[in-house]
Amino acid sequence: MLKRLIPHPFLSLTLVFVWLALVNTFTLGNLLLGILFGIVIPMLTAPYWPDRPKIRHPLKMFEYVLVVLWDIVVANVQVAAIILFKRESSIHSQWIVVPLEVTSAEAITVLAGTITMTPGTVSAMLSADGGSILVHCLHTDDPDAVRDEIKNRYERRLKEIFP
Amino acid sequence: MNFVVELLIAISLVISGIFGLVGSYGLVKLKDSLQRLHAPTKATTLGVGGVLVASMIYFFAKTGSLSIHELLISVFLLLTAPITANFIAKTYLARHLKESDLPESQSSCGWSIYDEPPESRPGSSKA
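The joint structure predicted for all components is written out below.
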C-alpha cells in the first residue's frame, strides 16, 4: 500500500524540500501542499521511471558533494590561470578515454556531470555500450594522470554509493 | 550592516566578477569550439556561485533569516549546465569530426554517435 502510494520515496522527499525552498517560508499550509505535490507528481510520472535507483550509502553522497564542490573551486583557479597566462600555441588539448567500471545509468550520469562541472574537462560521449566515456581536456601533458584521477577520485566513490 | 559583512559581500562579488570576466575572455581567446566549451563552465560555477553567496550573506544580514532560493539556483545550475555542454559537444562531434579523429573506445562497441548499441541490452545507458 505504502509502496503504491509513494513509489519513489527519495523523489517525494526531494519534491517536498524543493517546494518549501521555493516558497522560502515554512508554514503548515506550505508543508501540506508540498506533501501533496510529493505524492501526486511521482504517481503521474511513474511510467517514466521504470527502475528505482538503489543507493547504498546515503552519507557517502555528502562526502562526494563536498569533494566535488572543493574540486570545482580549485579547478576554476587552475583553468583561469591557463586562460590568462598560457599562450594559445602552448595549450595542449587532448581526448582522454576513461574505461568505466560503474554500470548503472544513474552512476554514469552523475560521473559525466561531475567531469563536466570540474573545469578543465568536459565529458563528450559514451561508447555505445556504456563501457567507456570520452573526455575532452583543455590542457594536459599527462593524459594518463587525468584519467587515473577521474577513476580514483570520483568513480571509486560512486561505486560505493551506487551498487 | 557592519563592516565585516560588507567586506565579505564585496569580496564574493569581486571574485564572481573576475571569474565571469575570465570565462568571457576565454571564449574570445581559445581557438576551437571544444576548447571554448570549457570557458562557460567556469562562469556558471565560481562566477554565479560568488553572486549567490553574496546574495545569501546580504539577506541574512538584512532580514536575519537564511534565504534558500540561492541554494536552489546553484543546484539547478549544477544539474543543467553539464547537459547543455554535452549537447554542444555531441553536435560538434557529429558535424565536424569523423570516427577516425577520435581515440579508440577501449570497449566492445564504438562511440555512441557512430555505433549502434548491442542488441542484448536494449536501452542501455546513453548520456
